Amino acid sequence: MAQSLAQFFLANFQAHGDERAYGQRHGYRMEWFTYGQVLEMASRFSGELETRGIGKGDRVMLWGENCAEWVAAFFGCAMCGVMIVPMDDGAAADFAGRVSRQVESRLWVCSRRHATDIIAGAAPVVVLEEIKPPVPSTSSGQALSLPNAPGQGRGTRFAFPDVAIGRDDTLQIVFTSGTTAEPKGVVITHGNVLANIDPLEGAIQPYLKYERWVHPVRFLNLLPLSHVFGQFLGMFLPPLLGGTVIFQEELKPSEIVNTIRRERVSVLVSVPRVLQSLKQKIERDLEDGGKMENFRRRFRASEGKHFLLRWGIFRAIRRQFGWKFWAFICGGAALDAETEQFWDRLGYAAIQGYGLTETTSLISVNHPFKLGKGSIGKVLSGREVKIAEDGEILIRGSGVASGYWGADRTEGVADDQGWYRTGDVGALDDAGNLYFKGRKKEVIVTSAGLNIYPEDLQAALRRQPEVKDCVVLGIERGGNAEPCAVMILRDQAKAEEVVEHANQSLAEFQRMRMWVRWPQEDFPRTSTQKPRRNVIAEFAARQILRPGTKEVANNDPVRELIGRITGRSVTAANAEARLDSDLGLSSLDRVELISALEDRYQVELSETSFSAARTVGDVEKMLRGEVKQRVEFHYPRWVLRWPVTWVRWLAQHLLTMPALMLLGWPRIEGRKNLRGWNGPLLVVCNHIADVDAGFVQTALPARFRRRIATATGGEALEALRAPAPGRSLFGRIYDRMQWALGVSLLNLFPLPRQAGFRQSFAYAGQAVDRGYSILVFPEGRHTVDGKINPFRTGVGLLAKNLNIPVLPMKIVGLFEVKQRGKKFARPGKIAVRIGRPIRFAEGSDPERIARELQSAVEGL
Fold first, then answer.
1. Is 326 helix (H, G, I), strand (E, B) or coil?
2. Over the range 12-29, which residues count as b (16 or more CB within 10 Å of their CB) and which as e?
3. What are phi and psi for residue 816, nearest 5 degrees?
């Protein structure tokens, strides 16, 4: 049995040294790390700490987004006995600074974007992105492939400081940021964490013989590593299975589904809010497709059927997620019964866990194959749970934290008998299942002395189809507390009618007689997606106690996001401010804004609708659904796989190249510039005619030619795939054949001119991950005068986020042939010139990249 987390880390990561441990988005691509590489990074980082004179008992701030480097820094500190102070990625800089001063930190380890927020004169800074081994400066073009760490396989010994670390030594100090209370630091020891790992390891052992049939189990972890629950599912549990953890910052439902399907994810780790958003996305898609009534009928009919039958009944939905996906693990809040039933009926396991920072996360967890419906699981071995007379959940065991961080560092978490009062109200059934009823301080006590649990009322409201989300809280009026419903409603729903219908399912004393309609598209939330009840309560109290006021909640997220991107204050007074002329939003700012809005509201926004938005008010109307327009482009993945790749290779040599040689045998110049380069590359070229792609591919060496994907006009390509209704049957068949031949034999993919290019760029990243080079024509249209049109800024954005070398090329002589109306040219009349590949530093400005690339092509 391990005596410290350092021993656990070393043993389990070495056991799976060559297997993938972590995957994360880097621009438009995926970056992968093996267990051995993470171990090697942790070893190097512990050496860095030793060099700086930072050792056992010192504190180090760890502040950044989820990534493999974060994990390596965490374990590197643990190996040295250094106390980690994790900060939430979204924490305010002044809060992080106060914590740093309070714990007297010796070092900051943070992401590059947070490094600028650290006050001058504070502790030294190490940037997270610099922890990983540097990419070798070679001509391989594989920008994201990390070099193999020497001796990273099984049984290899890594160089870690020889420090005696035991279960009673402090591992980390976690500063909780609750929704209503001032944050405070919880001191967690190595023993606290191991006390939670030990029972999980024992429960997993009997199932490892079955795991090899689905190996590796892939976890998509959307929980922050700065929280203990996120740590368990992102760092402590996966190594027990040799699993792979994928990190993703984007919470937009469509992106979550795409990642689950694309990366063949087995388990999604998140908070209940995300499960609710995914449910709403499925329902929204069914509504848009006119299939909702049919779904509801099948949903009712599937009750009580075997899960394999339900898989078949809802196979269309399961196909969206991929057939390897089977479970959700959620924590941080209780999952409402309706959402739990929805996913269960579709054949997915919704596994709930319960815990707090003070209990080192896990107290109870549902067994994935023996779910206690509606419960938050059975209590894990090694801890005791009892329900106090007032219903409060009390915990005792070795997982309870040692204390709170303070000046004398002696403030305890538990009472004299070792019981920790959670502040949560719950119940235990005869089978040992624990049920969450709500926060004790949120329980509403009526004038009759009866207790009302907000979760019961919220469940009744969520059963109403008009309710998107809700919070029920107590409002003091006349010396007594009464329940008040704060609701986000769909369309033009009437709040009074919604509450009336919800009250019909409640007891008389529970019924809500006060309600407020929240004026924004979502509640303000914490980093773990919990509503900020204190902010909501203040707003509701003002509305109830001062009726008739037309108050808008402070800190409107839409205007806050616009202000953050533009650097200007956007208030209610300038709702008609124009995004371009008044606020200075560039095309790239618009890309950043739409992504930020989608992340904030967890919705999909049409880029076409967004491009039509001219003012701040237009953006708000679009979010309310007053602007509805959607363009969908298709990106078939089968064109990147066998046997299509073989067919395409034959077609290139037997059809495309002979045809181009006949039309005009091109003169190829500059092939020597590609000596030593193996790809992938981003190829940019001037645009003269539809045959440009053929000339470029013919000019490239075979090692590039056999694996290259070409971006083409998205609107024209989609018109072939989905012909206009007025086309004849023969015309529709002909168009579809052109589309099929284009995407399979020429490997074309859509690059829309008006909207949808973010999805196109993401597809380009997936192609590069498979070893494909990408060919784009940055002008976006054919030249009409022989001169190169200005390059669109999007090529700079693509080059920045693909992070691969860019190859400039130029076709010369073809325009003159085209101008004369000729179909054939003499051999050598047309020339294809190849420049030298160009690398751009990470973080380069996309507009500057586009200008430099245009100059490079013009200079050929």
1. coil
2. bbbebbebbbbbbbbbbb
3. -65, -40
pLDDT tens across 75-97, in order? Answer: 999 999 999 999 988 787 888 88
Task: Please give the CATH topology (third level) of the domain spanning 557-623.
Answer: 1.10.1200
CA 192/CA 5 separation, integer angstroms? 10
Helical pair 35-51 and 68-80, crossing angle rounded to 10 deg: 50
CA–CA distance from 212 to each of 23, 219, 349, 697, 739 (Å)?
20, 16, 20, 43, 41
Let me know: does 113 contact 23? Beta carbons within 8 Å.
no
User: Which stretches of 724-770 are DSSP H helices?
Assistant: 729-745, 757-769
In whole angstroms, what is the distance from residue 128 CA to residue 107 CA? 12
Q: pLDDT of 405-449, one tens digit each?
A: 864 555 678 888 888 888 888 888 887 788 887 777 788 877 666
- Fold classification of 1-133 is Rossmann fold (3.40.50)
CA distance 243 to 202: 17
Helices (H), 788-840: 794-802, 814-819
Q: Torsions phi, psi of 108, nearest 5?
A: -105, 130
Burial class of residue 200 (count of CB atoms within 10 Å of its CB; 0-12, 13-18, 19+): middle
Nearest by Cα to 365 from 404, 399, 323, 415: 399
Backbone torsions φ then ψ of 38, nearest 5 degrees: -65, -40
pLDDT in tens, 310-364: 888 898 899 999 989 999 998 877 787 888 889 988 989 888 888 888 888 788 8
Residue of 427, 428, 426 whose CA lies nearest to 439? 426
Distance of alpha carbon 274 from alpha carbon 271, whole angstroms: 6
Cα 595 from chain centroid?
12
> How does DSSP assign 235-277, residue by residue?
IISHHHHT-EEEE-----HHHHHHHHHHTT-SEEEE-HHHHHH
Question: Strand 244-247 to strand 218-221: parallel, antiparallel, or no bridges (unpaired)?
Answer: parallel
By CB neighbour count within 10 A (0-12 exposed, 13-18 middle, 19+ buried), where does 262 fall?
Answer: middle
Contact indicator for 200, 355 with CB cutoff of 8 Å: no
Q: Please answer whether residues 94 and 122 qualify as being in contact, where contact means their C-beta atoms are separated by less than 8 angstroms.
A: no
Q: Is the peptide bond before 846 cis (omega within 30 degrees of 0)?
A: no
797, two tokens: 């954005």
Distance CA 30, CA 247 (A): 10
Homologous superfamily, domain 637-858: Glycerol-3-phosphate (1)-acyltransferase (3.40.1130.10)
> 0.85 cut: is pTM over it?
no
Phi, psi of 728 (to 5 degrees): -70, 165
Q: What is the 8-class DSSP label of residue 149?
A: P
State the first-to-last Cα distance of the chain, in angstroms, to the nearest integer: 66
Same fold, 1-133 and 190-414: yes
Domain borders along the chain are 1-133, 190-414, 443-545, 557-623, 637-858
The C-alpha atoms of residue 857 and residue 854 are separated, in whole angstroms, by 5
Which class in CATH covers the domain with range 443-545? alpha beta
CATH superfamily of 190-414: ANL, N-terminal domain (3.40.50.12780)
- Report the side by side order of strands in the sheet with 420-428: 383-387, 392-397, 420-428, 434-439
Q: Is 369 exposed, middle or buried (0-12, 13-18, 19+ CB in 10 A)?
A: exposed
- 438 vs 333: CA distance, rounded Å: 9
In angstroms, what CA-CA distances link 331 with 47, 155, 194, 229? Answer: 35, 36, 20, 7
Would you call 349 helix, strand, or coil by DSSP? strand
